Amino acid sequence: MSDILFLTHRTPYPPDRGDKVRSHHVLKHLSTLGRVHLATFADDDRDLGHEAALGTWCASAQVIRRTKGNPRAALEALATGRPVSLTAFDAAAMRRAVAGLLAARRYAGIYVYSGQMAQYLPGDARFVMDFVDVDSAKFAGYADSARPPLRWMLAREARLLGRFEQTVAERAMATLLVSRAEADLFGAGERVVTIENGIDTGFFDPAIVELVASDTPLIVFTGQMDYRPNIDAVRWFAQDVLPIIRRTHSTARFAIVGRKPTAAVQALAGDAVIVTGEVADVRGWIAAARVVVAPLLLARGIQNKVLEAMAMARPVVASTAAAEGIDHGGTLRVAADAAAHAGEVVHLLDDRSAADALGAAARARVIARYGWDACLAPLGGLMGLPPAGNRIAA
User: Fold this and answer.
1) Which of 80, 70, 64, 69 is nearest to 9 (CA)?
2) What are the pLDDT digits (tens) for 35-64?
3) N or C end of the chain, less CB within 10 A?
4) DSSP 12
5) Which residues share a beta bridge with 113?
6) Is the dihedral of CA 167, 173, 179, 185 positive or negative?
7) What whole-number distance in Å separates Cα of residue 100 and Cα of residue 88?
8) Can you give the C-alpha Rg of the chain in angstroms?
9) Would you place residue 218 in the very low, low, confident or very high pLDDT band (cuts 50, 70, 90)?
10) Torsion from C-alpha of 207, 209, 213, 216, nearest 10 degrees
11) DSSP string spanning 215-235?
12) Facing residues of 38 across strands?
């Protein structure tokens, strides 16, 4: 069986946030193609305790605690002329780990997940680069709405990171993006390939989930709540959209479900807004929702939160940005501004049968369109690997 090196910027287990969902399923798929040797960062101490789980799919795993804070990363970036996105994940321990792995054996394929990890490969390495999204474009979008001096820093990040992304793509055997829109934004080329996100519809199945109890209609948002696009989305929805909804549905409550809510998110909590923090199982909240919303003002690629809600047979109202890249076939509602968001949510709250029908159609759509096995099937060929073999036993 072939050996595969997998580098990823966050531990691909548990799959409890968007980037880790994709990397987790990539890991599982790669383990059917060969013996996977993993090098990854842990964001916190909890991420260091999953050796047994990772051993289900990995022949070896090196998990290194990331301790560098953003202020230090920013100072290093200014001093070295590099993007903050790279200096934040630049660690001597990871350099030693990757060098040791490369010296230990010959790899049939190398898979790099997230641009931050490409800095650890030597110039002659043959690898597949999974950028997922065009991060440089994200920072350019932030810069457009920021004030000086933050605008200057964000524009700098967009410019330098964009150059780095293009340089890495020139070296890679293939460059992967999560949607056609992201691939077009990055720049067309025969080695730029779309590999979409999928959804585990066996796990996200409303038939096996116990609903969170609520005596009022719930409008639910899920996500990592220290991530800026999620923070901006829930603040906008709570301040600009929810008051319109409550003119006709005064008991409706907006539930913000996700770990690490910032002070700005916690400040939204009140009679009309629930801020849960981390929950044991997000599916119970999704299943209890009368409507799931994804009012992202800035979004890249395919939003896992939208696919998860669709798989749970919930009616979804998404912003234009959040819906972009999802082949939903009309099984979710798309809104462009506050009035449109409120109008779609009110309609679904008013007409329970229409909401249930939309949710059922959404689940059918993701089952037919977004299975992980189908989405990831091209990886072996892109990496030049032999056909799938048996997965390493636990």
Assistant:
1) 64
2) 999 999 999 888 888 888 999 999 999 999
3) C
4) -
5) 8, 130
6) positive
7) 22
8) 21
9) very high
10) -50
11) SS-EEEEES-TTSHHHHHHHH
12) 6, 61
Query: How many angstroms separate the CA atoms of 178 and 307, rounded?
Result: 13
Beta-ladder partners of 112? 7, 129
Q: Tokens standing for 128?
A: 């597949």
Residue 316 clears pLDDT 80, i.e. is over it: yes
- Is-contact 179 325, C-beta < 8 A? yes
Which residues touch 256 (CB under 8 Å, ≥6 apart)?
Answer: 221, 225, 234, 238, 265, 268, 273, 274, 275, 276
Q: Report which residue type is found at 1.
A: M
In contact, 317 and 332? CB cutoff 8 Å: yes
Handedness of CA 279, 284, 290, 291 (dihedral sign): positive
Cβ atoms within 10 A of the Cβ of 267, count?
Answer: 13
Q: Are 50 and 23 in contact (CB under 8 A)?
A: no
Q: What phi and psi, each to the nearest 5 degrees, are found at residue 259?
A: -80, 160
- Rounded to whole angstroms, the Cα distance separating 54 from 14 reads 9
E strand or H helix at 110: strand 109-113
- Degrees to nearest 5, angle at CA 273 with 238 and 223: 75
What pLDDT, on the 0 to 100 scale, is given for residue 392? 43
Confidence of residue 1 (pLDDT cuts 50, 70, 90): confident
38's CB contacts (< 8 A; 6+ apart) are 6, 7, 8, 12, 27, 54, 58, 60, 61, 62, 63
CA distances from 252 to 238, 247, 255, 345 (A): 12, 10, 10, 10
